[in-house]
Amino acid sequence: MTDLSKIRNFSIVAHIDHGKSTLADRLLEETNTVDKREMEEQILDNMELERERGITIKARAVKLNYRADDGQDYVLNLIDTPGHVDFNYEVSRSLTACEGAVLVVDASQGIEAQTLANTYLAIDAGLEVLPVVNKIDLPAARPQEVKKEIEDVIGLPAMDAPEISAKNGINIHSVLEMIVRDVPPPKGDRNAPLQALIFDSQYDSYRGVVVYLRVMNGVIRPGMDVKMMASGAVYKVVECGYLHPKGMVPADALGAGEVGYLTASIKTISDTRVGDTVTGAENPASEPLPGYKSCQPMVFSGVYPADGSKYGDLRDALEKLKLNDASMYYTQENSIALGFGFRCGFLGLLHMEIIMERLEREFNLDLITTAPNVVYEIDKTDGSHIEVYTPLNYPDPMEIAQAYEPYVRASIISPPEYVGNIMELCQFRRGEFKDMTYLDTSRVELHYEIPLNEIIYDFFDALKSRTRGYGSLDYELIGYRPSKLVKLDILLNGELVDALSFILFADEAYTRARRICEKLKENIPRQMFEIPVQAAIGGKIIARETIKALRKDVLAKCYGGDITRKKKLLEKQKEGKKRMRTFGTVSVPSEAFMAVLKMDE
Amino acid sequence: MNELKPLGIYIHIPFCRSKCQYCDFYSIGGSRDRRLVDNYIQALLVHFKETGARASDYIVDTVYFGGGTPSFFGADNLRRIFAEVQHRFRVDKDAEITFEANPDSVSESLLKKLRAEGFNRMSLGVQSDRDDVLQKLGRPHSYEQARSAVQLARSCGFDNISLDLMFGLPNQTPPQWEETLRHVLRLRPEHMSCYGLKVEEGTPLWEYREAANLPSDEVQAEMYLKAVEILEQSGYRQYEISNFAKPGFASRHNLKYWLGEEYIGFGPSAASDFAGKRYTNNRDIQNYIRGVLKQDVPILSECETIPARERAGEYVMLRLRTIHGISPEEYEKNYLMPFAPLLEAITPLAEKGLFYQKDGRWILTPTGFLVSNQIIVRLQEAQEASEPLAKKR
Predict the structure, then answer these.
(1) What chain A residue is nearest to B198 in terms of C-alpha separation?
(2) N or C end of chain B, less CB within 10 A?
(3) Would you say residue A171 has pLDDT above 90?
């Protein structure tokens, strides 16, 4: 166990692309935690998907040994955090395990919406925030201006902030010295009853659940019985130790102030809730650790196996993913059109896309995802108040006294020349302008109150395209407001396909209904019969398109009895159909379910 | 003596004067290399001998020379091959003996020789009545040549003549197609085949398909239905998707394919369904020759034994191409599979006019033929999801 005074626990916060992962790599190299030779690019992002998307989804931790300029040996625990607005909860969990945060700001881009959001999360968690100006070797770098911006906008002293280039390894040493000097050493009593915070966990088919934790008080040793305070489950610790980029390094004990892992042959994944406190079974702490915010899924979507018989596989896959992702939520759902599936809750659209991709890739599932929706609240005429998570449960209009939809406070930062475009976009999305502040001469921050429903799908893309990529977005839920809502139903060939229904703002119903019918017409291939595509509100048809009947699909010449060839052709056709779902006599490809949402041309 | 089983024989003649723009069948365009022709005939003769030995309880009731262009191959070569077929197989005296011909390689002497040898059916590739179109398609003949070939064949004693036409050709309009049909019908063939042009990958036409101004699927469907109508009115009964015949003149050989009867194919790329196995010969003529004569490369490129359940799928796929359709009794008796799931799929299709029922059999209408791939897939899916009858008991 390392002496408390020689431990520094920190994370790195940054806007996406500002160089967080690259800096982490350099710190690993500079401390010889990983040989330069063995250095895999951005080793902390060790999920395949993360690497492709260039963002860190899952928090990971790593222990660095560092001999500082004062000649003393220090242990620096770097806890990695995700950088996207969808993952605020994961950021908060990781931050609570630290005493300090290195704030990376791009020397040419300056402060962005996410920089602010993550910084405030770190300040809220009581962390010492240490600014670093990155990419100083780029021609467009303006480190002095950016430092001033940090002081003006965030109110952090920044004039002495290290000017570095993570990419080219410039001034990395000064970052390490700053961490040793300015991050407070952890407090904690190793003789007190055990309290350790779970900030992440991962399922390993050989060891069971691997729990990543930060010990706050007491000591963990192999062989001791530990108790998860929220779930009440008790396990005997099999192994504990430190986290190295290349794997786990077992140790005799993990003491207060230290960051590491434990395994305890934990099979029941729901027993190790992220955010829970681990304590000793014999000498338990009197209360769990405070500080973890509970996560709130904001976006819900129906997830169904493309092949109905794979329902069990999907359930198992979701169970496994849930272990690694405390922010995901799911519950069984039954659609008349799609059969058994799940209603899943996500932090945002990016989070949803990542989960879908992981399900398809890691678990080899073909999925149908229905249009994402937010949670609506409804006062019913019988006096009751309900929350609606899925269009399937939307009450009959006759039973609704008042409907409410969630609003967010959106913060958008952009160069001033795009303000007009942004205002136009926000107005179109029913946003209510609040205020506008110049951060400096080249950047302005706008605040809007806007229905969450309007930003969950393609708002960010629309913002990017209207600001030539410069606009950044952050938002937080501010509560529910009365709204005029309707449920739009889609009928294919006269039959209602419940999985295509969704809830929207009443005034937009006609325009959207027409667009959706057109989109479905584009996305559903011609079939043997003409297929009417209709959109209806409460039984009243408000839009219609027709998919014309396929007129010709025939092998005219089946020459010389070459039946094998014809069979192959038909087999190919059958394979294609397997990727579609059939409603009555209409086959619908899975893409059609999402395509209806792409409203922004 | 046991009753002899009927057998069809197909012989592929992979030689053509020139390659047509749309053709993706295996053939060699240009001059006939003397040595190649000799070797090829040699290989065929050896192959007949080997196979004939295994077909002693069969009687051959159809022989079909397809191509390529058998007429271009020459009467003497064809006679030599056919003589050997008769030597190695038991050939019925009333067998249907067909040869395919192109108008540019039909002569009086060829027709006389073949007729004398016992050939009794000619299938002539006419394709269009417009010379500009024929030229564009790369056909080495005029319509006038086609017309005189038919007359010549008549005078040489052929009373079973089939003409091939194509629709859906570049720049073709429905009125033009109708005119072509009426024009060609004046030649009074016993049999007509009307094929929709299919642009196959790897053909020259594929390369310029975008610029070819091909009629849309809608227009092609219209042309097809028009052909069915005109031919029916003129006394030609549709008996398969693309085939029409005066009473008694349906191609007995081609019907074998659709009705699941046995046939053996000789020559490169030819297919067989014989003694419970389905196989396809090597597609390359050199490999085929080596495979037969030197036996150092395999003759077959594919060979599979078709399980009973798959035969049930083929029954649906093949029968539905024909006017015979599918019969619940036949299906349940031969494949021990329930017809009910199929009927469930058929019923809504029948309501939409894609199927009709006659004497207990379910048959596709011309509109149904046009989308038969879709229908077959749907029925096969219903079939694959069902349990065999035997298991249920």
Answers:
(1) A556
(2) N
(3) yes
The H or E element that residue A23 is part of is helix A20-30
Q: Could you report the per-residue pLDDT of A541-587, keeping only the tens digit for each?
A: 999 999 999 989 988 776 666 788 888 888 888 888 877 888 877 88
Name the pTM for this structure. Answer: 0.69
Look at residue A40 and tell me whether its pLDDT is greater than 80: no
Does A281 have pLDDT greater than 70?
yes
Taking CA atoms, A348 is separated from A298, A299, A315, A374, A459, in Å, by: 6, 6, 21, 10, 12
Please compute Rg for chain A using Cα positions: 27
Over residues B175-189, mean pLDDT: 97
What's the gap in Å between the CA of A489 and the closest CA on chain B?
Answer: 25
B217–chain A nearest CA distance, Å? 6
3-state secondary structure of A261: strand
Give the chain B residue whose CA is nearest to the CA of A587: B378
The ipTM value here is 0.88
How far apart are the two ends of chain B, measured CA to CA in Å? 38
Contact residues on chain A for B214, CB-CB shorter than 8 A: none
Cα–Cα nearest to B248, from B363, B96, B146: B96
Q: Which of B11, B28, B31 is nearest to B19 (CA)?
A: B28
Tell me which of A528, A550, A581 to substitute to probe the interface with B (most B C-beta atoms closer than 10 Å): A528
Longest dimension (CA), chain A: 89
Among the listed residues A354, A357, A395, the one whose alpha carbon sits nearest the alpha carbon of residue A378: A395
Joined together, the tokens standing for residue A444 give: 């302005």
Report helix, strand or coil for A413: strand
Chain A hits for B66, Cβ within 8 Å: 559-560
Mutate to test the interface with A, among B377, B380, B384 (most CBs of A within 10 A): B377
Report CA A283 to chain centroid distance, whole Å.
37
The average pLDDT across A382-393 equals 92
**A443: closest CA among A109, A136, A117?**
A109
CA distance B280 to chain A (A): 8
- Tens digits of per-residue pLDDT, B318-348? 999 999 999 999 999 999 999 999 999 999 9
Stretch (H or E) spanning B206 = helix B204-207
Min Cα separation B260/chain A (Å):
10
pLDDT tens sequence across B150-175: 999 999 999 999 999 999 999 999 99
Residue at token pair 């290195």:
A102
| B218 neighbourhood in chain A, CB within 8 Å | 551-552
Q: Among residues 538-597 of chain A, which lie with CB inside 8 Å of chain B?
A: 550-564, 566-567, 569-570, 573-574, 577, 585
Backbone φ, ψ for residue A53 (5° rounding) = -85, -10
